[in-house]
Amino acid sequence: SYLWKVWEGHRMAQLCCEVGGAIILEDTYRTRLQMLTKYFRSRFSSIHCCYAIKYTFCEMLNLLISILNFWLMDVVFNGFWHKYIHALAAIPVYDWQLWNMMTSRVFPKVAKCEMFVYGPSGSPNVLDILCVLPLNIL
User: Fold this and answer.
1) Family assignment (predicted)?
2) Do the domain assignments include residue 58?
3) Which residue in 108, 111, 104, 103 sits closest to 128, CA to CA?
4) CA-CA-CA-CA torsion for 40, 45, 49, 52, nearest 10 degrees?
5) Model-level pTM?
C-alpha cells in the first residue's frame, strides 16, 4: 500500500477529479472524457508504460504477500489449510458435523471470560463465565 501510494502520487485522482463526481453535467462529462482520451493517446506513452509496470509489480507483490500469509497461518495453526480442505469438501455433501468440528478448531464459538461486577457492599467480584462468540458462529 505504501509503495503504491508513493509511486502513484494521486495521479488517477487528479485525472478523474471531475468525472468521478456523483452529480455531473453531460457536457462537462463529455469534455473531460475527451481531454482524458487525448491525454492517454498523447506522446507520453513511456510514462503510462512505466505506470502500468509499477501497478503490475504492486499487484504481484500483493499476491506474494497473500500466499505468504496463507503459509504463515498454516505454520502457526499446525497445518490448518491441509485440514480445512476436508471441511470445505463436507459442504456439498451437507456433513455439517465435520464442518463444525473443523472450523471450531480455529474459530472457537465459546470462550472463557472474566466479568468484573460490584457486589452490594461495593467490593469488586470476578466471575468466570462462558462467552458466546457470535461472529464465529456465522
Assistant:
1) Belongs to the pannexin family.
2) yes
3) 111
4) -10
5) 0.56
Are 57 and 114 contained in the same domain?
Answer: no
> pLDDT by residue (tens digit) across 40-81?
777 677 777 888 898 899 999 999 999 999 899 888 878 877
What would the grid cell of residue 74 be? 498454516
CA 22, CA 18: separation in Å to the nearest integer?
A: 9
Instruction: State the Cα–Cα distance between residues 63 and 72, nearest whole angstrom.
Output: 14
1 and 65 housed in the same domain? yes
Whether 52 and 119 share a structural domain: no
DSSP-derived secondary structure for 81-102? HHHHHHHHHHTTTT-HHHHHHH
Report whether 71 contacts 90 (CB < 8 A): no
